[in-house]
Amino acid sequence: MNGFRKKLLANLDKSKESDIRTQHGATKTDDEIEDILFQRYREELAGNARLKQVIERGKSSDTYRFIPQFHFELPKNSDGLAQKLREEARTLFLQKRSKELLDNNELKLLWSLLESHHSPPLMGEEQYINYENYCKVAGIAGEKFKRYLTASTFARLVVSSSYPGKISVMSLFNYAMRKVWLQQTRIGLSLYDYTGQGYLNESDLESYILELIPTFPQLEGLEKSFHSFYVCTTVRKFFFFLDPLRTGRIRIRDILTCTFLDDLLELRDEEIPKDAQEMNWFSAPSALSVYGHYLNLDKDHNGMLSKKELIGYGSGTLTPIFLDRVFAECLTYDGEMDYKTYLDFVLALENRSEPQSLHYLFRILDVEHKGYLTPFTLNYFFKGIQDEISAHRAEPVNFADVKDEIFDMVKPADPSRITLKDLIVSGHGETVVSILIEFHKFWAYENREVMVTDSTASNGEETHNL
Question: Where in the numbering of this chain does the PP2A regulatory subunit B'' EF-hand domain appear (predicted)?
């Protein structure tokens, strides 16, 4: 026993047998002292020594004795009752939050109160309201309206007001409507967040979009057989831009703060100009166009795209070297690309200036998986451009000149390598990527001065003719 006690003492830097005897008196037996040492040693191993000291110092307060639980694990799949209880509690919570929102009749009442309490004179046809009348409206409207008519709201709006000390009635009403819409949308999205963690995975968002389709007049003519492809096309844009690291989920907060929902919910309008529909990724013409191009590329009609088929994408001048890397890095099935992978490819090439697209393309360019591009890497891809130059019997271009031009544009922190951050910060990421992967883009960049001169001369002739 003496040997065990010595071992315990060796592991307790601050504990000595003499100290224990002084503290507890000389009446303690060796076994009792050994028990005390053992308890102290166990507490140190468990990391509770510090907590015990705090409790001893604050015995007069129960707050040190009882720490409330602040983390609750999600119910396991096997625990059906706990899952059902959690789901029911979440549904009741969302229903309660939904009842707190202003309905159409209450919004009309708010507009009526703001109009009747506006502060003259009129600024043109626009009505303004001062803080005194603003407070009167808040008092008359009732408790439910107070969260929309706070002092901080007035202060934020008055900063951008063109009339000192007053805010626009229309701006205030638009703010209230926008807040109601955001809260309604958040509640609607949260209904599909089955874990209640503030995230949606791909299947959750697909369910949300699928149930929205019947509410969009702009999608009434869409055949039901195409609905699954439309949902896939829509969801891929959300995940491509809001989940660039491919975690498989996106935050509801990110969905609300991006502009994609505005574009999607624009489809509720009865009439949208043709050019606006073409610019909106979520419109029926746009979705049909993207899927139509996919079908046109699929020459063997097997529902997948091979490397040979994908080379016809766009202007048809993407280099074989770049396409080899695409199929090496992206998800494929027996060497062929499915529609989801194709959508990521399209979104990356159509939005090359965006950080998410540069992240996608940089991963393909980073042949050595080092996290940066070297002159060797640039030369590896530029060989594909040089092959196209030879095929078109154009004047050869020296790689050293192109390399120097790229490094001059990017101005990387390390002059011997280019990182993704360097590309994004430089503002020339789109240009650098384009001249390495697509002959058509390289040729346009190489002859940009000639094209500008021709364009200027052409404009001069037109002016002269007029």
Answer: 194-270
**Residue ranges of the domains in the chain?**
1-47, 99-184, 303-454
CATH code of the domain occupying 303-454: 1.10.238.10
Residue 55 has pLDDT above 80, yes or no: no
Give the number of other CB atoms < 10 A from CB of residue 252: 21
What is the Cα Rg of the chain in Å? Answer: 33
Global confidence as pTM: 0.76
| Joined tokens for residue 46 | 């468990």
Give pLDDT tens digits for 408-454. 999 999 999 999 999 999 999 999 999 999 999 999 998 877 654 55
Spell out the long-range contacts of 374-377 with Cβ–Cβ below 8 A and sequence spacing 24 or more.
Answer: 374/416, 374/417, 374/418, 375/403, 375/416
CB proximity list for 249: less than 8 A, separation 6 or greater: 199, 200, 201, 202, 243
**DSSP notation for 24-54:** H-TT--HHHHHHHHHHHHHHHHTT-HHHHHH
CA torsion, points 192, 193, 196, 202, in degrees to nearest 10?
A: 160
pLDDT tens sequence across 216-235: 999 988 999 999 999 999 99
**Running DSSP on this structure, what letter comes out for residue 318?**
B
Encoded tokens for 437? 């992967």
